[in-house]
Each structure stands twice: as structure tokens, then as C-alpha cells.
Amino acid sequence: MKLSMNKRTENRAQRTERRAQRKIFCSLFSVLCVLFLMGMASKPKPGVYIKKLKNNYYQLIVDKKPYIVKGVCYNPVPIGKNHEYDWWSDPNKPWIVDGKLMHEMGVNTIRIYQPGDNPEAVKKVISELYQLYGIRTILGHWLSFWEYPGPFYGDKGFQERIKKDVLDMVSLYKDEPGLLMWIMGNENNYSCLGRVNPWACEEAEKEPDPQKQGAIRSRIYYSYVNDLTKAVHELDPQHPVALGNGELTGLEYAKEYCPDVDLIACIIYRGKTFGNLFKSLKLTFDKPILLVEIGADCYDAYLKKEDQDMQAFFLESQWCQIYGNLAGNKKGAGNCLGGVIFEWSDEWWKYDEHASDTWLEHDTGSNWSNGNYYFDIKVEGNKNMNEEWFGIVALSQEPEDALLGSKDPAGQRLNKRSPRKAYYTLKEFWKNPALCISKKAKKKFH
After folding, report:
1. DSSP state letter for 399
2. Would the pTM count as exceeding 0.70?
3. Model confidence over 124-140: pLDDT tens digits?
4. Rg of the chain's alpha carbons, rounded to an integer?
5. How far is the CA of 314 from the CAs of 39, 296, 307, 317, 393, in angstroms?
6. Strands 58-62 and 48-52
7. Dist CA 254 CA 342 (whole Å)
8. Sheet holding 58-62, edge to edge
């Protein structure tokens, strides 16, 4: 009987001890949960990020809402100036007039290839476009692609210099409320294959096979961009970083050596259709895509006259495909985030950037050929692409009546802006994408 009483007492003590242990465990678990939730609260999601949905669809999220980029490339160089002109400090403030027109059209984003040298002026442009019109800015960096005698991505000193410049840019503008994302480079991948601005490095020069040389340079270049991307992410976790790439060329190397980019910023001129672009990217390098340079000029080089109908048709056709490949469209790839039109306004200096006497003329000469824009490909020499006529807004030497900025002390007024048919066509399309290409346009251009 005494043994039995002792056993019951022992069991009761053990149960009491286990209850005490459970209480301690529950208390510790509760504390850990609170700490975890506090940690989550202290690390909110970025203001701009890319969300991966079911079926491997992608969506750009801005301030917790889906965001379709409806953008234009922006470089408001006035008539009589060239690309060296500091429009950021233009006392006429062209972005005020342009921003109003953009807002009325439905543009929500501008793309800048690289910010100007005056940080305060750059911040003012970004801030005023966002505060006045809700227009966000994509900032890029050329990565010294046009540097003479050429970019040397295999040189450590060159790499460090450009990296410092990129990170300085990020430090300066990362806290601007109107910033949308960063783009590293533009069509720099073509330099790896010797097409544009070729560069040499000791490792590639030792290889006699040209194809293998291209592979070596591609590895070096994309690895460098990945290094930049990681550094930008560390400095600014609030905004995505894009790889600026000409077409899909070289992305088989980017997949291996540049996995940390958030998206592909694709520059593409395929005429009225992008073909299998979206599905090809998904198979080659499964990242979301933003078409950061698309468009059509509005000059018929064969008939030697302006053709706004042709430009409007090509742009509407391109945007139909962009919408067809956004997340949620079951018939598309679901990896498109939107598009950026090249470009907002004409650039009269483009035909011959070194001859200042031509900058006051709207030249009709062509610089290059592209059979995808088939209407004027029959022009002599097949050079049908007119660089000075890509704007969806035309410029004239007549002064702008609706000048909202200040007058230039030298007496120069802002050039008058005249929206072309493409402006109004896309304005209506963005309101109602179901309108996709009118029957009249189909009949005329197919």
C-alpha cells in the first residue's frame, strides 16, 4: 500500500512537471511568434516588385497594385540642338508641357537612358512629373557602351569605374518617390558578338574560333552585369533591376551568368508582330519582360512623305500583342509587364549628329534598313528607317502656345508639340484594349 501511494505521488509530480514544461514551451513559442511578426513588420515588401503568379505568370506591383507600364522613351532635345544638350536644365521646362500631354494620353512611365550631370535638376524632373501627373521614371545607365575607343568589359579598372558610377546614380535617386526601376545597359550585348562597339580582351583573343570568342565575351559581360545587379539590390532593395538587351540575343548566356536580374528590358523592332518573342524568352531565360524600345517611324521613305496612318497601325498592332501576353491572358505567355514606345517626340539632330547645320532641318534621309517595316522597304538601297521621324509627337519651330515653364533668357521658346495619329490611337486603345486594330486599318495594311 505504501509503494502504491509513493507511485501515485511520483506520477502526480511528473504530470505537474510536464505541465510546467508545456507552459514554458508555449510562452517561448509565443515570444518567437511575436519576434517573427515584428521582424516581418520591420521588413515590408518593396514599393515596386515583381510578383510571380500561378502558371509562371509575372506581374509588376507598385504600391500594392498591379501596374502595366505604358511608357515612352523621353529625350526632349529642342530643334537646333543635339544629344549633348542639357534639357534637364532647360528653363522652358519641357517636361511640364510634355507631362500634361502624356497624362491626357494615358502614359504612366517615361524611360531615361541615363540621367544628366546635375542631380538637383534630375530630381526636379522626376519629382515634378510624378507629383503633377503621376508619371513614374525608369532610370538607366549606358554602362559606357558609347565610350571611345570602346567599352572594355574585360578590364577590371573599367569595370570598377563604371560600377562606381552606377552605384553613385542609385544612391542619388533611389529615394525619389517617382522612381520605378533601373535598367543596366541597352543593347550592349551586341558588342560581345562584334556587331556594335566591339571590344577585345586577352582571354578572348587567345581563342581562334570567332563563335567561341563571342561566348567568352558574353560570359564576361553578363557576369559583370550580374555583379552590378547584386550591388544595386544591396543598396536599393525597393526597386527592380532590369537587363537592357537587344532582342533575345545572348540570353542563353545571361541565364547562366546573370541570374540575379529581376526582368529583361528588351529592345526590339520586328514591325507589326513580335512573333514568338514571349514564349521564346520563357524557354530561354524564364524572366518577365518589359519591351523598353518598340515603335515605328512615320515617314514613308519610298513615297517620300509623312504617313501617320502607317505609324499608328504598327504601334497599335504591337500593343495588341503586349496586352495579349500580360498576366491573366490565358492565350499568351503571361510574362509581359508592358511597353515603352520609342519615342515621345522627334529628334531633328539624328540624321547627322556631327553636322550642326542640319539640326534645324527635319531630314528625310534614312540611316538603316529593316524589312519588318515593309511599306517603304522598296526605297533605293532599302534604307527605310527614318531616325528623325519616330516621335508620336511632332515638333515644329513655331513656339508652343501652352508654355507652362519660364522663357529662355536667350529668347528661345519651347518648340510647339503636335500629337500624331498614333498618340490618339493609343489613347483610345489603352482605354479599351478590346478595340484592338480597327477593321479599316486591317483592310488597308494587311
Report:
1. E
2. yes
3. 999 999 999 999 999 99
4. 27
5. 50, 6, 11, 5, 16
6. antiparallel
7. 25
8. 48-52, 58-62, 65-66
